[in-house]
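Objective 1.3, modelling of assemblies. Example input:
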Amino acid sequence: MPDRIYNFSPGPATLPQEVLKQASKDIVNFNDKGIGLIELSHRSKEFMAVADEAESLVRELLEVPDNYKVLFLQGGASTQFAMIPMNLLGADQKGTYLNTGTWAKKAIKEANIIAQADVAYSSEDTTFNHVPAQGDYSVADDSEYLYFVTNNTIYGTQFKDMPVSDKMLIADMSSDILSRKIDISKFGIIFAGAQKNMGPAGVTVVIIREDLLDRAPETLPTMLRYKTHADKGSMFNTPPCFAIYCVGLVCKWVKANGGVEAMAKMDAEKAAILYDMIDSTDFYKGHAQQDSRSLMNVTFNLPSPELETQFIAEAAAQGLDGLKGHRSIGGCRASIYNAFPKQGVLDLVAFMQEFEKNNS
Amino acid sequence: MPDRIYNFSPGPATLPQEVLKQASKDIVNFNDKGIGLIELSHRSKEFMAVADEAESLVRELLEVPDNYKVLFLQGGASTQFAMIPMNLLGADQKGTYLNTGTWAKKAIKEANIIAQADVAYSSEDTTFNHVPAQGDYSVADDSEYLYFVTNNTIYGTQFKDMPVSDKMLIADMSSDILSRKIDISKFGIIFAGAQKNMGPAGVTVVIIREDLLDRAPETLPTMLRYKTHADKGSMFNTPPCFAIYCVGLVCKWVKANGGVEAMAKMDAEKAAILYDMIDSTDFYKGHAQQDSRSLMNVTFNLPSPELETQFIAEAAAQGLDGLKGHRSIGGCRASIYNAFPKQGVLDLVAFMQEFEKNNS
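Predicted structure (tokens):
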């Protein structure tokens, strides 16, 4: 194997090599202090500075307004599926959900355990191959929020424009945070598991409007209240220090490379190379409808499952790894988040052309 | 600063240097596969092998019986404080708690949010300077379990012998797991935040008897059910991969160094050196009663708070770091978990003798 392969995994995913190298050094001896980063007390001034910097960079890159808290929590997006209704909905209240894939469905399930999920749109009967356009659904007057998943990792679809509603928006941005400019003031909560576009697995970034912190009922356990974490700067208990540190490093890398707008431009470029290839032939077929195509996860099929298996194996042998689609839809998927290099996309396209020539 | 200082932090804490060096290498290129450890998909065969090995080693080192699951969860011990009553108690049921310090108190608070905590003993009126002996308390017939904290990090106390009860035991072993042999068959649940004796912050190891998995009420969100995680081998959602990997490395190190019994012997030796020093003079005074002394966290005071501040600063300047006691009791604390080297304890004792000579 070469020193570095191209890793198309959907998450945990490719990270910038600079981030890995810095982490490699700091783990053994942080700032030449004679102590490893993961050995630092979370209350030490060294680690507090790491966490503060990570938060500041998230705020800066995403232009987070002052009346929003940025939290570093544990438990993944899956825990947010429950925490959101637990904090925001009484048992007789409801939130509106757009069912655009597996992760939306899971969020709907949790909302229905705690309160009521009003599903205003579903693309399930077309194997989630698109997201709704404005006007395809309506949000009930008595709904507390409109919940959606900005990018659907499994199906390779993405909201190009954010839904517009007079209700507050709540978004799972696990797989496209830091890849697009957003107007956070329209949102009550934005959350993202870090392991796709922000860092390693083990931390969830939650951006929450401050007035929502007081809505949790008295019966909610301490760790499940956003307020607990907001009041203590995400240090109510020992936080996932290493993952937070890595989020800080990734944010530094994003900033050094031009910020979110530069990421968006490069992501669009990379995705276009791949979609142009797919559109240029009948051998490869994109799963997502054109207007719903994701810039993060490119899903496609070959003429047969056998050819797909062969394609994935031959690609891996050439250092193009992790191209297998999610088990729920099969096929192939190339995840090309911010940190995925353009050269890897070019190499994949060259491989696709060669594979088509040899097998059609 | 030297390449490596002695880090007496209570957690996150000192890890074996071999573990740090291996992690440093694997983060950039895991098994020479051309991909960093934290970039591996959690469903890849490489990471599955890492997680399986970590679980096997925990099972082997702690002699976990076959009818117990070993889970790697997120959210720290603080989340377990709530998950335990949420999974095991109906609103009208109760668990018995021994209040031996801050962490026990927090667990009691959560149990009272969800059901009822019956506090059978408290050492709060003596600043938690001891743990109860067998016979100091009784467990009500209608209690579902007896909950206790095996080692109290803040106060430096520890149960030398585990409580005996006909009810199942539930133990927070965050700060002394892997440091002592235990008969797990007496326990319903044992849990431990990894960041003291098992690894970095970001993962909680939960050992749970299988018959308890079905006790959660239908109204409990998916991520808060132990069964969710048990059924999926801790892979229901993306787990904290790096922290699990490190737990595996720490377990390998424990095994290579003789296992839990060898750790217990070495821990007793290290603690004795420090307690003997404290007992040999009136300048230093131990906080914990002799029969409750912790082998993990040695708490002590100097003649005045001013001398304590000076002591902590001068020690740090000599590379003996993190000796400040918890803000709730002040004074000094030396945390000397499994991975803390004996030489660091000897150096601390030499410094203590020198400091006493210069300041008494």
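Chain B has a mean pLDDT of 97.
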